[in-house]
Design brief:
The chain is of the alpha/beta class and 317 residues long. The chain has 12 helices and 16 strands. The structure holds (3R)-3-hydroxy-L-norvaline.
Amino acid sequence: MKNILVIGSTGQIGSELTMKLRRELSGGTTVAGYIPGSEPKGKLLESGPAELANVCNAKQIADIVDKYDIDTIYNLAALLSATAERKPLMAWDIQMNGLINILEVAREKHCAVFTPSSIGSFGPDTPRDNTPQDTIQRPTSMYGVTKVATELLSDYYYHKYGVDTRSVRFPGLISYTTLPGGGTTDYAVEIYYAAVKGEEFVCPIAPGTFMDMMYMPDALNAAVRIMQADPRYLVHRNSFNIASMSFEPETIYREIKKHYPDFKIRYEVDPVRQAIADSWPNKMDDTCARKEWGWIPRYNLETMTQDMILHLKEKLL
Ligand code: VAH
């Protein structure tokens, strides 16, 4: 990887991935792709080039690839699960019509492509514990439908045209830099903000609802490492299970309470997000990612909580 285009560079993943790529791949260029209304600001804008990059405008993407001699595209454009349930046709347009634009540009201009999948690609018939790498995927959300289709289309372009497509199934991602928007797992970010601000947390997900979760630094390492992996050892491509921790609201609440003994939680379950969460697995088996490209997480709930609170105190207080 040398010259990279990050589409969705101002989102929860993109804002941090772009900065990481610029820090770690200093020999090349990392272009921050954005759409009107989500322009890069601050260090993201000052540290490198930015271009309008709407996945639904294939020519716009192709022109950027030509201008910067892009060899790798990180396609992070998506509506998250709860938003996608409210806007299913927009989600399909961005995630599928946008994806085929990216894959066609990559086919013509010989770019590698990373498009993330998610635990959302599984459904209620999928084995919930130690979810296998290769298993049934019949999601019941539009987000999940687009993620399964993303995996299949990305594999199709690899097998039929040789496009170097790779992907991971992200758990719920937790970070202190950019708030997620419209996700089912967003509660695991919002709970830290409430604790640091000294507020009671109103949790939209019911106690006992386990989901795979991951700290953003581990997610970013996975996104970079998989694209740098030796393709000779890749048995799978789209898309690898990666896991680090699985918890439910009471578990994370008790961990935060070690730092804030007076922290309170109450539940106001959101039926849309709860139905989505109930259809997702509890914990994935990520043996294939560990074997094929050396995936290994560094954070657990205790160390993530320490780091989140440390940084949110600086950010909010
Ligand atoms: C969501 N944070 O909740 C995203 C993610 C695994 C969950 O895809 O929709």
